[in-house]
Amino acid sequence: MQINSTVNQAINKQIGMEFSAYLQYLTISTHFDVEGLSELASFFKAQAEDERDHAERFINHVVAFNGKLEIPTINAPTSNVKSIEEAAKLSLDWEMKVTDAINSLLKLSAKEEDHITENFLSWFLDEQLEELSTMNKLLKVARRAGENELAVEEFMVRQRNQNSNNANSDT
Fold this sequence. Notes:
Elements: H1 5-34, H2 38-64, H3 84-111, H4 115-145, H5 149-169
Helix pairs in contact: 1-2, 1-3, 2-5, 3-4, 4-5
C-alpha cells in the first residue's frame, strides 16, 4: 500500500515544521542554560526531543507506506529571546501553528480517504492538546512572575516533581 501523494507532500511539510520546532526549542533551552536557569533549560530540551520524535514518527509513517520523503528547508530559529514570557509566548504561538497544520492534515487525509493517516494523526491531536495546555500554563506563570525568573524556576521544579509523582502512581 502506498500513501496518497497529496497527503505525502503535506506530511513532508509537517516534518519540516517538527524539525523547526526542534531547533527552536533547542535554541531556547541553550539560552536558559547560559542564563543559569537549569529547570527551564531542561524543560525546553525535553520539548526539543519531543519535537524531534514527532518528526521521526512522521518519517516512519511515510516510509512504512512507501512514500517519498522530502524534508523541506528549515528556517533558522529565533535566537534573541529576552525573557521567559517571550519564550513561552513564542512557544505557544508555535504550538498553535502546529495544531492548525495537523488539523489541516487530518482534513486532507479525510478528503483523500487516507484513513490510515487519519488514524495515525489522532495521537498527534492528543499530543497537541497537552502541548498547548503546557505552554499556556507556562505563559501565565511567566506573566505573573514578571522579572522574578526564580519563581518560574521553582514552578518548573514543582511541575517536574508532580509529573514524576503521577508517573510513579501509574505503575
